[in-house]
Recover the amino acids of this structure.
């Protein structure tokens, strides 16, 4: 209960003060994964730091409770800014007092990967959403993800067909991931040496559910029906983190 209260207060503050496209349930998922893994976290795509702050705050809380130490490597070329400056990102990190837990890398994913040798506990991909670029992010960085580490893609349920194709091909249908699931617009999974037949069946079952949710986004249904369906789908999904 104490953990949940801490998480809720942090997430509410970050969502209210930092711009971005992360829902509350997505933020709760990221915080939970980062808190439990609390090691090297690579974030591909930081924008102004909404998810960066959530991840780093989780690591800071884990550090305080002596669970583990870690750092967020926030990789973003900051192309959306006029002068390619990370000013807003840095300001949000300083405002929340998490400078110790974040290493900002103003480079593209491919540039940042050159010379990278460290293992990764949590790989959070929220960069360029074109299929080719999402696939490249996966192929570059997934080999560094530890067995037992977690991968997560943003915008993998709605909006971006390229990202949906990548997670279908490399996460849901892969033998290298288990406990694959989704929360709102995030798809996540745990890396393993070789998943079991039961793991693969569960992954494909959740893949079907995710595609069903994707389909409903393009069908005009009364809002109350869609809202009613959300908890039903969450209950049906066999993967939770």
């Amino acid at each position: 209960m104490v953990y949940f209260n801490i998480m809720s207060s942090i997430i509410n503050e970050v969502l209210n003060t930092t711009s971005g496209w992360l829902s509350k349930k997505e933020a709760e998922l990221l915080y939970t994964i980062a808190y439990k893994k609390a090691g090297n976290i690579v974030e591909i795509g930081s924008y102004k730091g909404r998810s960066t702050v959530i991840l780093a705050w989780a690591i800071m809380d884990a550090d305080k409770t002596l669970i583990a130490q870690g750092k967020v490597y926030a990789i973003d070329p900051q192309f959306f800014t006029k002068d390619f400056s990370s000013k807003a990102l840095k300001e949000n990190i300083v405002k929340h007092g998490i400078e110790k837990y974040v290493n900002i890398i103003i480079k593209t994913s491919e540039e940042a990967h050159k010379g990278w040798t460290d293992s990764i506990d949590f790989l959070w991909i929220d960069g360029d959403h074109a299929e080719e670029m999402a696939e490249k992010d996966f192929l570059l960085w997934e080999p560094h993800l530890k067995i037992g580490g977690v991968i997560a893609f943003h915008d993998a349920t709605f909006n971006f067909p390229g990202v949906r194709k990548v997670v279908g091909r490399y996460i849901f249908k892969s033998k290298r991931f288990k406990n694959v699931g989704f929360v709102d617009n995030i798809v996540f999974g745990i890396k393993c040496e070789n998943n079991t037949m039961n793991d693969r069946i569960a992954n494909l079952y959740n893949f079907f559910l995710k595609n069903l949710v994707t389909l409903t986004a393009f069908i005009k249904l009364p809002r109350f029906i869609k809202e009613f369906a959300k908890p039903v789908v969450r209950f049906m999904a066999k993967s939770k983190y």
